[in-house]
């Protein structure tokens, strides 16, 4: 129950008082009891008790009326700690995985957490035991309207309210409710629940990602255009368990904002999120580091996608949106151009094990060290499927690929597969993915051979930002390595070299573990680089070794998707001309080959 409702209830019983009188009494109650012990609502409960008004009994009567008559809608703002036999209708915002707990009597309990909302507020829901299975049993998805009956309300340690189900509780779902539409209260048979209240859909309450800078609070719903390749990495969570985190950059109407989803629940993540698609993220909160703003979500956060080719100049920024079938991924025919494996050495650092003749082996017979190895293949779409995407290149992540039999991959091999998901330019394969070597693979049968590789080389003048490319170029300058101070205060290494083809010059840039691949290059050498990411140049600052303690350096620049600052040369060491629009960034999966 919110402050306004409690004050209104008190004034109904004490018309001799004003709203200001009641609030002043509440402030005095908070002062006399002490800071940190009472919320304003809690103080109002005590004020009501002093005045002989039983707020809890009045609210309980209202709840009972709502349960007995479906014509009365109980808003989430009217809930209070201790309420029982509560029935609410709300729309689902977040869905968490089921967790299991052991009871003292040796039995186990199941818990599924949800976050639901109506037009006034959002609230956490704990679905216990049989109710925890309702999500799968009823096919509940983010954005669906559900009705929870005969539940009870408790407070968390932080004072926030939580709806809990008990043995007599029930959960109902609408028969079908798109996450982007409004819906009146309905039950699972399609007949009206009688609330007569429209609860706005997720997309209706979503705000542009540019607008979050001035906001606080949890459970925000935002939209933006995916403008960077989503990066998924492994980390140890606070329980010491291995988990996944995804980071992506979304473009809003006015700015870009990084979105980080911790403890990824793949059931909440769209299987296909193309670059330049419109993305909706539900259930995130604002994180600030100085002036820098990020949005952070967790295992309950939802990531949906609608394809969109960019913003328009009209007021309707999302005009002409085409729906993406985010749950369907069909058979893909791919040709492997290069393979790279990155594994931990004895110091816990990454070492590159790529080569022109690398053969990657994945399967149950792999060595034990492969469990700590990340495996990548740079691939192109093969055969007639290429169409207008003739220069499209993808990163094939095969780190999680496991099969009962051995699958051997080599460069120039042609394969077919059904991915587990495609995020940006990365195709993911896992133990559930179908993968097979094509019978027509190889130059003898396929008639493509090395010619296919040359077809896929891009000219530097044709690159576009945040896309993956293979280029062939001449090294034009000696590599230069600098030590730089990053935003987080860490000292890192950065290498760059100027390369060019017959269309344009560009800087090839590497960070930290990839610096050695640039250091080995020599002037006049011809190289072929597979898997570089084009990034637009920015005005940045280099910090030389002899200036490393100068606090005026290393404070500018943005961080790229690897979490390192983009820092470029100062004017006296600029190796490039103004025609150098893009930089070509080396990633851990990039393969550089020397051509004789």
From TrEMBL:
GO MF: DNA binding
GO-annotated biological processes: double-strand break repair via homologous recombination; response to ionizing radiation
Biased composition (Low complexity): 354-371, 568-580
Keywords (A to Z) from UniProt: DNA-binding
Entry-linked CDD domains: SoSSB_OBF
Region (Disordered): 346-371, 549-580
Entry-linked PANTHER family: OB FOLD NUCLEIC ACID BINDING PROTEIN-RELATED, SOSS COMPLEX SUBUNIT B HOMOLOG
Protein name as annotated: Putative RPA-like protein
Protein's organism: Candidatus Nitrosocaldus cavascurensis
Organism ancestry: Archaea, Nitrososphaerota, Nitrososphaeria, Candidatus Nitrosocaldales, Candidatus Nitrosocaldaceae
